[in-house]
Design brief:
- The protein is α/β, with parallel strands linked by helices.
- The protein has two domains: 205 residues, Rossmann fold, CATH 3.40.50; 68 residues, no CATH class.
- 49% of the residues lie in helices and 15% in strands.
- The protein has a six-stranded mixed beta sheet with strand order 3-2-1-4-6-5. Strands 7-8-11-10-9 form a five-stranded antiparallel beta sheet.
- A hairpin with a 2-residue loop joins strand 7 and strand 8.
Amino acid sequence: MNIGLPKQTRRFRAALAALAGPAPPAFGVAVSGGPDSLALLLLAAAAFPGQFEAATVDHRLRPEGANEAAFVAGICAERGIPHATLTGEAVTGNVQSGARALRYRLLGEWARARGLAFVLTAHHQDDQAETLLMRLQRGAGLAGLAGIRPRAALDGLAVLRPLLGWRRAELAEMVAKAGIVPVDDPSNRDERYDRARLRGQLAEAPWLDAPALARSAAALGEAEEALDWTVEQLIAERTEDAAGGLTFDAAGLPAELRRRALVRLLGLLVPADPPRGEAVQRLLATLDAGEVATLAGVKCQGGAVWRLSPAPPRQPN
């Protein structure tokens, strides 16, 4: 499909090639009906016609959700793009995190059923800047400050984000030029949500440069990947099997590498639900003191060389 934007099409093709290779396999596109995801749909249709399918998730949070999914289905039908509407159980508890978990679970099930190698989402540069500032306010560490990753694995789903170098305004302009009036989701302006509140504050602070913030997030993301790579090398070099458990030579390592190694080792022994956060920090302090503690069913003995093994079952009272 020719959307009259050959430069944007070439730019999008190059961005996706950097993530998936020059000839990506069949893939999916997540489309909510908002301007960002509609721009993603138009770009994918122009750059890779007949090579992808689209899906819209109805979170069942608003009565308009079904109509919005039907709106996207109509746009796809006009362009010969296969489309599916995905629905699941109603979200409870924290609305935004629950909706996100539901969205990626449904998209993963759909992608696997359709044989799609990955799914594209429309996260862009302004999203990245907002995410970095939100996480700074929350005191996040390096992993959080790395922001939105170009590639991610979520609930078993490979997610690619080729629009992280694009601004919100240029995506909206593209949709307007295509003659499409996008869906207006009022939650994007609802100040009960952190992101919506921060978005309004950013609009009133033009001195905050979204591209510069996004570059910082990308640099932090590269540092995070480098540390992850380093820890994998350390695990391979310093870990030994020992009596049903593991030993790890922690001598001489900086605190952050010890912490990351401990998270990785616990993940090897408790793959279903490895502990994180403050529980790991407390365990690390115990190991550094040469003491013994049990966490998540793993007995851990500290010192220069750590010993981790499944804890014996508790005796009944």
